[in-house]
Amino acid sequence: MTLRVETITNGPFQENCFLLWDDAEKTGILIDPGDEPDRIARTAAFLGVKVELICNTHGHIDHAGGVARIKELLGAPFAMHADDAFLLDSMPSQAGMFGLPPMEIPKVDRELGHGDTIRFAGHEGQVIHTPGHTPGGCCFLFGDLIFVGDTLFAGSVGRTDLPGGSARALIDSIKTRLLTLDDRVRVFCGHGPATTIGSERGHNPFLNGAMW
């Protein structure tokens, strides 16, 4: 039961969508399909993976803009934290602000909360609520893999100047809920390269006081 990860960087924001699946069972989940839903669906088909659930770390348009179409293409339910529902509702205005075409607001089929479990193909992942970038921001921990959306980046952290953001909450979330993990945990970020908890603990200037 080996977990595999495919990174699908998409859209004008170069957002990272992740396909996480069991190599033997060929079933898995899709995390943050922000744009180019048809290409994302083709990637899953090419890899022979049946997507059982779409999970979003948060509700910004660059992470959720492709969800409605992906649901239609794959027939999979959609899960997200309820505190980001207002961001889904504002997707039409978000699209207009960035000069993007209108995007359909997806229906949330399952509300995620801190400590919830995501299951597929015998694997169990933990939902970790990490507010700060958005009120309902969540990370998904599967063994030594964690998918953090825009909470944490390689050498940086998520922005907090958008509606619902809080710098204090973000840093608290990272320090109390992410940096408590093992240094070897691999961190898959919503934009840019992957990193590790150990690397960010030791070198991220936003977390060691160098930026304050």
Structure, described:
By secondary structure, this protein is α/β, with parallel strands linked by helices. The protein has one domain (3-203): Metallo-beta-lactamase, Chain A (4-Layer Sandwich), CATH 3.60.15. Helices cover 25% and strands 31% of the residues. The protein contains seven helices and 14 strands. Helix 1 packs parallel to helix 3 (67-74). The longest helix is centred in the last third of the chain and has 12 residues, at 167-178. The radius of gyration is 16 Å and the shape is globular. The model has no long low-confidence stretch (mean pLDDT 95).
Q: Which strand-content bin applies to the residues?
A: 25-35%
What composes the largest sheet? 6 strands, mixed
Number of domains: 1
Poorly predicted tracts of residues = none
Number of helices: 7
Based on Cα principal axes, name the global outline.
globular
Distance between the termini: 44 Å
Give the strand order, joined by hyphens, for the main sheet. 1-2-3-4-5-6
- Round the mean pLDDT to the nearest integer and report it: 95
